[in-house]
Amino acid sequence: MLEGNIPPSLGNCQHLTWLTLSQNNFSGNIPKQLFGIATLSVMLLLGQNRLSGSLPLEVDNLKNLVELDVSENELSGEIPSSLGSCTNLERLCLEGKFFQGSIPNSLQSLRGLQEFDLSSNNLSGPIPIYLEKFSLQYLNLSFNDLEGQVPMEGIFSNASEISVVGNHRLCGGISQLQLPKCTVEKPRKHKMSLAVILIISVACLLVAVTMVSCSILCWFRKKREHQISGLLLGPKSLFRVSYDRLHKATEGFSSENLIGLGSFASVYKGVFHEDDTVVAVKVLNLQHRGASKTFMAECEALRNVRHRNLVKIISSCSSIDFQGNDFKALVYEFMSNGSLERWLHPVAEAEDGENKFKGLNLLQRINFAIDVADALDYLHNHCQTPIIHCDLKPSNILLDREMVAHVGDFGLSKILKILPEPINSNQSSSIGIRGTVGYAPPEYGLGSEVSTNGDVYSYGILLLEMIIGRRPTEPMFEGGLNLHNFAKMALPDRVPEIVELIPLASDQEEVDVTTRSYQNPSQSMAEKRKEQCLISMIKIGVACSMEAPQDRMNIVNVVNELNAVKKIFQGTRTHL
Ligand SMILES: *[C@@H]1O[C@H](CO)[C@@H](O)[C@H](O)[C@H]1NC(C)=O
Ligand SMILES: *[C@@H]1O[C@H](CO)[C@@H](O)[C@H](O)[C@H]1NC(C)=O
Ligand SMILES: *[C@@H]1O[C@H](CO)[C@@H](O)[C@H](O)[C@H]1NC(C)=O
């Protein structure tokens, strides 16, 4: 029952991610300030009001918007061709009443569209042929003034998914549409003048030049992005894959391929047989409230980030499964060495006897610590808007074939960004939403906003766990003692007593390490350096996991100090 104009000052809400004003009695123009909210990404729903005027050109500012609904208003004018810049749109509802002109060509860039409704307007001109190529699930063009041939391919091949009734000048299409046959226009014979031939030749030449430069560009890009990306990864947007393809890749989401299970999602290993790309497919559990928002949040968080220590998202799928249920999945590059959790706390593996998860050496641990700190520094300080991970823990650190660590699972980072309330009451009690017990900073339990300092806390705990070999949740850490205090009390002299038995490096490397310091190639020298490294790392872990957020170490310094630790370990530096 809200009425009057939509206040332009809503544009000041610069962190909104979704806005729904539908089914009210709003009138007047759509204020263009709404389109200045760069964060608006999940949905903008203004349908079923009495809004008039045109759809502002500025709509193209909302490059990340997934759903736009301005249907059943009194909007007029043409569909702005700038809408073609909103390339993430999946649902676009422009039905009723007065849009006119033709369907702009620029909309051919909206290749992710699944639901497109233009019905009951006053649109003229032909049905654009590019719609055949979209993976649409619903297309309603009825009750307009469209003319010419109805395409036959893609969505136009299934009469139950499209609607074109009420356009009296359409022809052709598949037979179920029962439209009149198109009368074939006889190609008129032109006498080509010299000028025309010249123009055509120039055009051809231009096209050829463009194609060559495009392929050179693409070639460069491909070279940069490894094998995986060749097939799936677009330069900017996430390519979408179909349910069918994921179903095949995971052998019907078989339990043999299940590699991870959480409340929000299940993760499967999959292989795209076209090019043998191995991937991890995270299927969202949409029964779980919030899972769908996690999906969009994670997509958005990862869409514009690229870093060697972040798990790379290859593709997404938002679709309907064979039973007709909603289905959402994210596709990542596959990390063949599993999670850090499995390496830190190996469970005896019965079947094949050999446990490959045994014994990370010190160099590997130092490298992981640097990898994860690099990733955090990037997320906090080098992204367009800082991204807070919120759930850093060993099971979310994944190791690739070369044993490089990658931070994964941005599901919670997304949720916290999107929730309209600071977290409503019954959710704040759930562990899931605030990170994980043991790794989440104490202030989150007291209802503080999430912050980069919070991530640093989790990082500190992770680092201590990597060195000491104990989880923060072990029974000995109930009551007053926690991993932070335990480590702090051992500094500096008792550090060797509390740390796990850590081999220096693998056999081959160990030789290198001991012979590298030529002056004193003895084992004891190496042992001494090892001890120095352990003490430094415990110090960093303790400084990161301080109780008060403002006392915690800055991640930039963490990165610097850890790199110094690595040099000490390698014998190229003697102290911090
Ligand atoms: C298409 O739109 C018209 C008018 O908005 C509506 O009456 C009709 O039910 C829609 N068709 C389908 C298949 O939903
Ligand atoms: C529909 O468009 C035509 C011109 O394209 C115009 O003459 C007519 O008034 C429009 N009808 C409505 C209801 O806006
Ligand atoms: C057409 O679409 C409907 C509903 O989406 C589906 O059940 C049906 O199998 C499709 N028909 C063909 C021939 O693809």
Automatic annotation (TrEMBL):
Keywords: ATP-binding, Cell membrane, Glycoprotein, Kinase, Leucine-rich repeat, Membrane, Nucleotide-binding, Phosphoprotein, Receptor, Repeat, Serine/threonine-protein kinase, Signal, Transferase, Transmembrane, Transmembrane helix
This protein's name: non-specific serine/threonine protein kinase
InterPro entries in the cross-refs: Kinase-like_dom_sf, Leu-rich_rpt, LRR_dom_sf, Plant_receptor-like_S/T_kinase, Prot_kinase_dom, Protein_kinase_ATP_BS, Ser/Thr_kinase_AS
Membrane topology value: Single-pass membrane protein
Listed PANTHER family: OS02G0215500 PROTEIN (PTHR27008:SF596), OS04G0122200 PROTEIN (PTHR27008)
Subcellular location: Cell membrane
Reaction catalyzed: L-threonyl-[protein] + ATP = O-phospho-L-threonyl-[protein] + ADP + H(+); L-seryl-[protein] + ATP = O-phospho-L-seryl-[protein] + ADP + H(+)
CC per GO annotation: plasma membrane
SMART domains from the UniProt entry: S_TKc
Domain called Protein kinase: residue spans: 253-569
Residues annotated to bind ATP: 282
